[in-house]
Write a structure and sequence with these properties.
The chain has 234 residues and is of the alpha/beta class. It is built from eight helices and five strands. The relative contact order is 0.10.
């Protein structure tokens, strides 16, 4: 979005590094993301750029956005999101021959879909969230879903119809797999550089300090010296 800085995270990282608040227990910063459970999606391998994982083969295969741009995606399933609310995103779905949307509301994306599947609300389904602190939290349904199936059951039925059945029989089995993957995440005690230490992120040209005439510095130094003589500052 235009109201967000593109360099705020590197600047905050530099500040934490300068203060020695990186790589220590109870230090660092917590990132508040725009959408619910975005952290959970990234933890299970669905990156912000649309790739299903961070392995080399996925990186070489291109991002979801690039495949949408060149017409490589013929069918698309959108679950609980409304990308067509932003006009500049509509062009990415023009090449899709089949658009399936599952949601609890008839959003702009749902109205443009070829197939609409009713989703169950948070009170009608069981599963887990990953909060912004990185903690995996389980929740249980309160009411029976009006559409007859919980969200995970709908996705399993779709996978079965597409010829790639998933072996899940309950939300607990899904949570167990996620927990198992979390145990395999490497705990790093160093940074990915040759010397193993952190390094500052260079500011882009747009954030460079503008050049100030030397006369301005001279004038400033003279004023500071007057303040010191009058004991107005240390």
């Amino acid at each position: 979005p235009a109201d967000k800085s593109q360099n705020d995270l590197p600047a905050l990282a530099n500040l934490l590094l300068l203060m020695g608040k990186v790589g220590r227990i109870a230090n660092g910063f917590l990132l508040l993301r725009d959408h619910c459970n975005s952290q959970g999606l990234m933890d299970i391998g669905i990156g912000g750029d649309g790739r299903d994982g961070d392995s080399k083969e996925h990186a070489e295969g291109g991002t979801l956005i690039s495949h949408l741009q060149n017409g490589g995606v013929k069918a698309c399933l959108i679950f609980g999101e409304n990308p067509l609310k932003d006009l500049h995103l509509r062009k990415y779905l023009d090449s899709c021959q089949l658009l399936i949307v599952q949601d609890v509301f008839l959003t702009e994306t749902a109205l443009a879909s070829d197939v609409f599947l009713p989703a169950s609300t948070a009170l009608e389904t069981s599963g887990s969230y990953t909060n912004f602190e990185g903690r995996l939290q389980k929740f249980s349904r309160i009411f029976h879903p009006k559409n007859g199936m919980e969200n995970w059951q709908v996705l399993c039925r779709l996978a079965e119809k597409l010829g790639h059945p998933w072996p899940y029989r309950s939300p607990e089995e899904i949570l167990e797999e996620i927990s198992g993957l979390a145990d395999q995440w490497p705990v790093k005690d160093s940074f990915p550089f040759l010397h193993g230490r952190a390094r500052f992120s260079a500011a882009p040209p747009s954030m460079a300090v503008p050049q100030v005439p030397s006369s301005s510095f001279c004038s400033l130094c003279e004023r500071l010296e007057v303040f010191r003589e009058k004991r107005l500052m240390l």
